[in-house]
Every structure is written in C-alpha cells, then in structure tokens.
Amino acid sequence: MKPLLTLCIATTLLASVATHAETIIFQDDFTTANGKAALLNTHRPATSINGTGWQFTSASDKPNTEPYIHQDGTVRTRFNGAGYVSLASTDAYTKPATLTLQADLTLNTLDGPAAAGAGIALGFYKATPLPRGNETTVNFLGLIIDQAGKLSLIDSSVTNAKKIHASVALPDFDATRPVTLRYTINTTTGGITNVTCDGADYTAAFQNVTGLFTDSATHYAAFLGRANSKPSASANVDNFRVTTAD
Question: Rounded to whole angstroms, what are the CA distances from 210 to 159, 190, 207, 220?
C-alpha cells in the first residue's frame, strides 16, 4: 500500500502546485545590450505575452530628465519619472481579474512624504499618463514607500489630490537598500491582498481597502519615482514583474 499512498500524496502535491502556479504576463530585469544605458521605450522586455513594451513620462520635458536604464541593469527614475506598460487584452491574451505586481525598489534620495506623492511607487495608471512636463502622479493608484519608511496606499486616480488610504511603518528601513515589494489586486472586488515587503506580510494594514483596483483603474502597470524638492534625486527599480494565478 505504501507505493499507492506515495503516489496519492505526490499527485495531491502536484495538483496544489499547479493550482497556485503563476503565469508571467510581463517581466523585465532591465538587462541591456552590451551593458549600455538605454531609454525605457527602446528596451525590449524579457517577457510580454500581450506584446506590450515600455512607455515613460516625466514631470519635465527637458533632456536628461526622463527615467532610463543604467549600465548596471537597473532603472533610474530621476526626480519625477514613471515607466508603464499596457495590460489591455489582445487577440491572444485576456487581461485577468487577479494581478500580482512585484519589483525591487531602492528609494535612495527621493525626499518628501507619501502624502505629497513623494517616494518610490509600484502600481497602476487608470489612463495613459499625461505627456512629459506634467505631474506623474495623476491617474496613479498603488503602494508607495517614502523617506519616513512608510508603506502607503496612494490614490491619485480621480484627481491629483494624492489621497492616502492606509499606511504602515517598515521596521529598520534603509533608503539605500533595495526592498522587494509584492502585492496582489482583484479587479472584481477592487481589493488588495498578499502585501509583502522583503517577505514580511503587511496585508492587515490594507485589508479594509475595497473597490479601488477596478478594471478601469488598472489599465497600465507602472512604477513611479517622485522627489518633493530635490531635482537631482533619483530612485532605482529592478526585476519588474506582472503575474497572475487565474
């Protein structure tokens, strides 16, 4: 009977793994050809099942103010820049109701509080961001980390009021050290779950949030870096992923 029992256990485990397997919708580790710097919109992502590519915007339309990929294979956001990719359905892909975002974020010198829209953020745009020369937080919804070491849910998806729905302190936060932020949203409930930062679970801080992350509020997956008063400031982004378990 032992072989049969072993087979049953193995089958159950495999079924469990299959149930929880993630499909990668979009993934990028920002490795560039020959290790050279590159603009986001000229870079080909590692995985993009709907064929989408990077677009970017920044609060200044002057040269050398846009986010770009550094030679070290990480994105520099500069003082007020964002990168985003479309999640729209195509002939070969249907946008799922459940989406998980993940990225390695280093705040570095971006100053100011989340309430002012300052920090390094991972989230969504509900519409195409405004052209360069405009505020990058307009239409943005997601989680942001600021210099105080707070992880906050920021919402500028209706206006540029930058409403904070919930916050939690990250213990022993170091702005010079990358952290891995990951969370899941459901466009049916509009809720947010499985919020982790470097593996620590912060879901409880955001469990009362519902009705925000709707299908119409999540047209684009994005990162955003914004300084409150330092034009020379910048943050780093690496290993950007959008996945689903649907």
Answer: 18, 5, 8, 19
* CATH superfamily of the 22-244 domain: Exo-inulinase; domain 1 (2.60.120.560)
- Alpha-carbon gap, residue 134 to 226, rounded angstroms: 12
CB 183 within 8 A of CB 195: yes
Burial 117-130 (b: 16+ CB within 10 A, else e): bbbbbbbbbbeebb
Residue found by looking up tokens 């499909």 in the block = 23
- Please state, in angstroms and rounded to a whole number, the distance separating the CA atoms of residues 54 and 52: 7
Sorted by where each begins, the domain ranges of the chain are 22-244
Q: What is the pLDDT along the chain (246 residues), one digit of tens a residue?
A: 434 444 343 333 333 333 458 999 999 999 987 778 898 999 999 999 999 999 999 999 988 899 999 999 999 999 999 999 999 999 889 999 999 999 999 999 999 999 889 999 999 999 988 889 888 999 999 999 999 999 999 998 766 668 999 999 999 999 999 999 999 999 999 999 999 999 999 999 999 999 999 999 999 999 999 998 888 999 999 999 999 987
What's the rounded Cα separation, in Å, for the pair 116 and 125? 18
